[in-house]
Write a structure and sequence with these properties.
about 325 residues, 6 helices, Jelly Rolls, 2 domains, mainly beta
C-alpha cells in the first residue's frame, strides 16, 4: 500500500539575531519581530512539528517516528535523524562549533552530533559568513581565543544567493547579518558558542560561551567541507546535487512544467523555497507553495510535480 505525502506545520523560535524575513518572504505568521528560526521538519523535543492534514493530522513527527516507523522505511535509530530549518540572520549569529556523534553522546545526554549544511536563499549585497579558522594547532587556537584575536582567527567567506556550504561537526562557523538560509542538519540542538561579539541581552547579560567544549571539538587545522556539485536534467526538472555525505544527501529541484519523479529512499524531505506547484500522487493533488514543507514516506512510489517552483530535497 502506498503512503501519501505528509505536510507539516512550522514551529518558530525567537532569537536575539532574528528579524521579520520569515514573514516578509514566506508569509509565515511569526510570533515576534525577532523571529530567527523556522523549524520546518523537526522531531527534536525542543521543537517538534505537527502534521497539518491527512490521516495523521495533529500528531507530532516524534509520534510518527515512534509509532509508525514503516513510514520511514523502518530506519533504525532512537531519534528521527534529520532537521530542516529556515534561518533569518537579521544580525550576526554567534561564532560557534558543533560536536560529532561520539562527543555529543558522551557529553550531552545521548544527543546526536551536528553536521549541517546551508543553502543561501537570499542575502544582502556583499554578505559574508564565517567559515573556518586560521589556527594550525590546538595551542595556537587556544592562544588566539584567549587573546581575543578574532580578526586573525576567523575566516570570512563572501556569499551570494544560490551558494551551498557543507558544515561538518568541528567546523567553526557563523551566519552573518542579512542572510536567509535553508539548513539541513542532523537532529541536534547542541551548539558551543566561541564568541558572541560581547553582546548583551535586554537585562544586560552576555550570553554564555562554551570555550572548553568548543576547543575540544574544533577540527584543527580547518578543513573545508567537501561539496561535489553536479546537475542533471530531465523533462520538467533540473536536479542539482549539492552533497551526498554520511548523514544526508541534499538536492535542489527546479521544476518548470511537469516532472515525473519516484521516491526510492527510506523517506525524503522537501521544502518549497520559491514558486508554486502541485504535487500529484495517486490521483490526489497537493498544493505546493513557497514555505510548504513535506515528507515523502518510504512507500510513496511515483509522483509528479506540476508548476514552477524550487524545492530543497534531502534524505538520509
Amino acid at each position: 500500500m502506498s503512503q501519501s505525502p505528509i505536510f507539516l506545520i512550522p514551529e518558530f523560535k525567537d532569537r536575539i539575531w532574528g528579524g521579520t524575513a520569515l514573514k516578509d518572504q514566506f508569509e509565515y505568521d511569526i510570533p515576534s519581530e525577532t523571529t530567527g528560526e523556522c523549524w520546518a521538519i523537526s522531531a527534536h523535543p525542543n521543537g517538534p512539528n505537527k502534521v497539518a492534514s491527512g490521516p495523521y493530522e495533529g500528531k507530532t513527527l516524534i509520534e510518527l517516528w515512534e509509532n509508525h516507523r514503516e513510514l520511514f522505511g523502518n530506519v533504525e535509530g532512537k531519534a528521527f535523524p534529520l532537521l530542516t530549518k529556515i534561518l533569518d540572520a537579521n544580525k550576526d549569529l554567534s561564532v560557534q562549533v558543533h560536536p560529532d556523534d561520539i562527543y555529543a553522546n558522551e557529553n550531552e545526554n545521548g544527543e546526536l552530533g551536528k553536521t549541517e549544511c546551508w543553502y543561501i536563499i537570499d542575502c544582502k549585497e556583499n554578505a559574508e559568513m564565517i567559515y573556518g579558522h586560521t589556527a594550525r594547532s590546538k595551542t595556537e587556537l587556544v592562544t588566539m581565543v584567549n587573546s581575543g584575536d578574532w580578526d586573525g582567527l576567523l575566516r570570512r567567506v563572501a556569499i551570494k544567493p544560490g551558494d551551498f556550504f557543507y558544515v561538518p561537526s568541528g567546523t567553526i562557523h557563523a551566519l552573518c547579518e542579512g542572510t536567509l538560509v535553508l539548513e539541513t542538519q542532523q537532529s541536534s540542538d547542541t551548539t558551543y558558542r566561541v564568541y558572541d561579539y560581547d553582546r548583551t541581552d535586554q537585562s544586560g547579560n552576555k550570553r554564555e560561551l562554551h570555550l572548553n567544549k568548543a576547543i575540544d571539538v574544533t577540527t584543527v587545522p580547518h578543513v573545508d567541507g567537501l561539496v561535489d556539485e553536479s546537475t542533471s536534467q530531465k523533462e520538467g526538472i533540473t536536479i542539482k546535487t549539492f552533497v551526498q555525505a554520511e548523514y544526508f544527501s541534499v538536492y535542489k529541484w527546479d521544476v518548470d512544467g511537469q516532472a515525473e519523479l519516484s521516491q526510492e529512499h527510506p523517506f525524503m524531505l522537501g521544502s518549497v523555497i520559491a514558486g508554486e506547484a502541485a504535487l500529484l500522487h495517486e490521483g490526489v493533488s497537493y498544493p505546493l507553495k513557497k514555505g510548504s514543507h513535506f515528507i515523502l514516506p518510504a512507500e510513496t512510489g511515483d509522483f509528479q510535480i506540476e508548476g514552477t517552483c524550487t524545492i530543497i530535497a534531502s534524505h538520509v
